[in-house]
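[agent] plan:
  1. take the single chain provided in the ticket
  2. run structure prediction with default settings
  3. attach structure tokens to the ticket
  4. add a short note for the reviewer (M.T.)
[agent] executing step 1
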Amino acid sequence: MGSPMSHIFWLWFWHGLKGLHSHGFSFLSIFFGRLYCFCQGFTSTSLVVLVMAIVYGCSTLDCLL
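[agent] step 2 finished; step 3 output follows
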């Protein structure tokens, strides 16, 4: 926590959660939240970036559908 990458991730992650919640998929928000906490246990930045892309991508698709 506290690194620039962490702040960027949280901004995108929160945007993703807001997008999912607005479409009624709160269970997906919980899933991604737990997945994020799980990924925090790793030191691999690429894994965090992958999760960020998934969260942001899902919220973008939900907005388009």
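[agent] step 4 note for reviewer: Helices lie at 4-22, 26-39, 45-64.
[agent] ticket updated
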